[in-house]
Specification:
Layout: H1 8-15, E1 21-25, H2 32-37, E2 42-45, H3 49-57, E3 69-72, H4 79-89, E4 97-101, E5 119-122, E6 138-139, H5 140-145, H6 159-168, H7 172-175, H8 179-200, H9 208-220, H10 228-235, H11 245-257, H12 288-295, H13 299-303, H14 315-335, E7 338-343, E8 350-356, E9 362-367, H15 379-387, E10 392-399, E11 405-406, E12 412-415, E13 419-420
Parallel strand pairs: 1-4, 1-5, 2-3, 3-4, 6-13, 9-10, 10-12
Antiparallel strand pairs: 7-8, 8-9, 11-12
Helix pairs in contact: 6-12, 8-12, 9-10, 9-12, 12-14
Amino acid sequence: MDYSRRLVDLTLDRLLPSLPAIALEGAKGVGKTATASQRCDDVFSLDRSQARTIVTQDPEIILSSQGRIFIDEWQLVPDVWDVVRHAVDDGAAPGRFILAGSAGPVPGTRIHSGAGRIVRVMMRPMSLPERGLETPTVSLSELLSGSHPDVEGRTEMAATDYANEIIASGFPGIRRVDESVRGDLLDSYIDRIVDHDIDEAGGSIRRPTVLREWLAAYGAATGTTASYSSILQAATPGHEEKPAKQTAMTYRDLLQRMWILDPVPAWMPGSTPLKRLGQSPKHHLVDPGLAVRLVGATISSLIRGEGPSRQDNTFLGALFESLATQTVRTLAQVAGGRTYHMRIQGGEHEVDMIVEAPNRKILAIETKLSPMVRPADVTHLNWLENQVPDLLVDKIILNTGDRAYRRKDGIAVIPLALLGL
């Protein structure tokens, strides 16, 4: 099968000629193996028992290979991390090692952080530009640069098309099969997390059903900053024996270590006039398609506005925000930016995404499941500009309209399908 380049390839193109070791991290199924394999001369697939046994007995056997070496699911034999680290210290050539992992090492495993030797690169499911649906006409890199570029372009994608993309997921292996069985594959992905991958990651789950219910409640909280206590309460509404709060935190930590949970951290700038900034992360699963399956939604129910009850949005609106967040985070990473969200305690003002450039300048982004922009949709963006005019380089609304343009107040209105690098 022909390989389709991913956005993370641009980062690897930049790093590998200069750095001896890269760790490509992300949840299972996002495409790490395909991306790394096509760059390497030899592969050690540690998720295969025979290879894992050989490397466990002699981790330094990986050094016997010539050329560029790919070590897949390295966390299953964590000793290879230190072998690579020492090889870097001994002068390994640029591009010598690519490690891929779908989880961090089991807690308690003693390995060096790799700081200064092994650079970590996150890989997520396919963003919208990577899916080849449209040719992007608006560059996030240019918006982030502060050049205030022209914004233009048209798309035929509408809200229903975005809903179909959410359900199709961004997992390459799931997207390529017939749509009639994609749901079955997503269900199987969730089953494997609960029944197998948690154990492999070093977790011990006594009540898998409760874990599944907690994961469904987390999916229902997509796009919110709901407390973990409230998520636990929503997961076990009729249970007399509820799991302890610490149990829920264990679920959270395990699933984040496997990159199944992909929360957006709160923006906490060092010095601004902003007060009472919330510190809670905004909840997102690694792919909104998983949230759809976990709560039992369908394309019909999403379009009808059904789903978990919310105060100011439909569930489809929250999923659209999650799809937009997945895309923006992928683009921002390549552009050298970091993605956050902003919320004032009490919720008086909030902005869906803050992309922070290396120079600390920021891009403010709101998402709207609508082809139109109402006056209320720009309130928080304009408020933020008034608070931090020296930091804010541009304001964006990502929506489901058919045309990209700038409003008279300077806000860029961009259909999500037209946003690219």
